[in-house]
Amino acid sequence: MKLKVFIADDDAGMRLVLKRIMESMDGIEFIGEAADGEEAVRRCIDLRPDVVFIDVEMPVLSGVEAARQLVEHLPELALIFVTAHSEYMPDAFEVYAYDYLLKPFKTDRVRQTLRRLQRNKMIRKTTPLKTLMLKNRERMSFIPVEEIILLYRENKLTYIVTAEETHSTSESLNNLQQKLATPYFFRSHRAFIINMNFISKIYPYGRWTYLIKMKGTEKDALITHEKLEQLQDFLASR
Length: 238
Prior knowledge:
Elements: E1 3-8, H1 12-23, E2 28-34, H2 37-47, E3 51-55, H3 63-73, E4 78-83, H4 89-94, E5 99-102, H5 107-126, E6 131-135, E7 140-144, E8 150-154, E9 157-161, E10 166-169, H6 173-179, E11 185-189, E12 192-195, E13 199-204, E14 209-214, E15 221-224, H7 225-236
Parallel strand pairs: 1-2, 1-3, 3-4, 4-5
Antiparallel strand pairs: 6-7, 8-9, 8-12, 9-10, 11-12, 13-14, 14-15
Helix pairs in contact: 2-3
């Protein structure tokens, strides 16, 4: 699987330099570019890159302001700031920048950063996730995966429920489902993912829907008739 990269810089020459570096590397896919921060946010939300090279000083929306919006929509995004000004470094790392490249930089420096990201992505693919990391403007939260009771989508936010507290994120259920690719998480409904280890009881809730009572929380989950049959088949085979 290739590492998808987006470039946001108002300097067309710099965008060309970065594209040339990417074209010389295996496993890197350049998927788009933008000349201002607002366009970068809009296109990245649509294209969902793994990595964004982003200049600090851009028209319409600065790189730092654009980065703050991007991490809200794409929490797993790796941000690499590219700028001639070192004084922006604290702002960059405040939004959890992966790296900070000062212009002029050597091409090998860019390659090293991309190779490190490739290695990190490969490790995530081959290692079962034990801790889910959520980040937003205020803080980073680390949630032990085995403690997650259920996840649900409501009012454009996703909620992750444990016995201790409920966390919220703008990340989609689909993205979180991919991260929680463990046998005990089950997509019971378009708006719910449940940890099967916490199922207590299941009740009829309409003609084609059922209500799931979960241990450790008062929050109930929904499951469709079709998904209930899949759940029963899966549990019977264990």
